[in-house]
Amino acid sequence: RGITLAWTGLNDHKDNTIDGTFEYLTGIDGFVPLSPLPSNSILKDCAALQVGNENKFEVRSCGGTTKIWSICKMNYFRLSIIFVPAEVPQRDESDGVLTELNWSDADQECKNKGGELMNICGMNSVILRRILRKRNIDTPVWIGMNYDTSKKKFFWRNAVSKFKRWCRGEPSLNPDPLAPNQCVAYIVGGKPRGRGTGKGCIRVEPCGTTIAPNKKMFVCQIKESTNNDLVNDTLNEVEK
To answer: What positions does the domain C-type lectin occupy (predicted)?
Structure first.
């Protein structure tokens, strides 16, 4: 493409930054410059990678008018949200709590972790597929969509999204079309309706169902700044 420079996430925007000290804007440990940066930089500079010369960065003004391409790092992140595939906590059935989670229980577990069931919009569908494929999860997982009986439509709980990639034969209100507890699960290997050749789609499941007894999974979306073991473990996994 004739690209000679590409923006990276490296900059000196952090408060009280010493002149010439650069950090990645995610603030996540594990990223290091491929070579020392020039020391003649000024505050509010950004670093661009010299394409074809991977051992060198070039310092440029972040607000400059020069057209420079950019490099995006695809992982589990979307803005300030991290998407976490969560297994059901190990519980003793004598406690009176089912080990499998229905939709409402999964929703509550995400809230307990400081997040909510995942909403699929934009690039989130790609992220979700990568999450599940990386962990070899091919069974249905709960997501943040259910049926609104007053409007007689399926809605995302906490998002405005047009994503409704239904599996073939869906949405099916089963077993009772008037039941108020119709929730939605995502299947990474499911075949969508229509002529699409891709995989990955959503289907209706009764909210009280415990999905996949041997693979009890759901996906939470949690703010990256949330401090809990689930987020920290996933951050470490992403950076490996």
So the answer is: 102-201
Q: Does the model's pTM come out above 0.70? A: no
CATH number of the domain residue 107 falls in: 3.10.100.10
pLDDT at 137: 74
- pLDDT value at residue 206: 80
Structural domain ending residue among the three candidates 73, 92, 119: 73
**Residue 60: domain span:** 1-73
- State which of 20, 40, 73 marks the end of a domain: 73
pLDDT reading at 53 higher than 50? yes
Determine the average pLDDT of the residues in 189-218.
73
Mean pLDDT (whole number) for 120-142: 77
Q: How far is Cα 120 from Cα 157, in angstroms, rounded to an integer? A: 11
Residue 119 sits in the same domain as residue 48: no
Range in 50-59, 194-203, 229-238 with the lowest mean pLDDT: 229-238
